[in-house]
Amino acid sequence: MRKSRAAVVGSTIVALVLTTASPSYANWSSFLDQVMNGFESRRWDDGDYSEVIFIGCDQGDATAVDVELWEDISLGYDSNKGSNHLTGCFKSSTSLSHGEWYGLPGNDYYFRIKTVWGSNEMSARSVGVDTTAAD
Question: Is residue 65 within 8 Å of residue 111, measured between CB atoms?
Answer without folding.
Answer: no
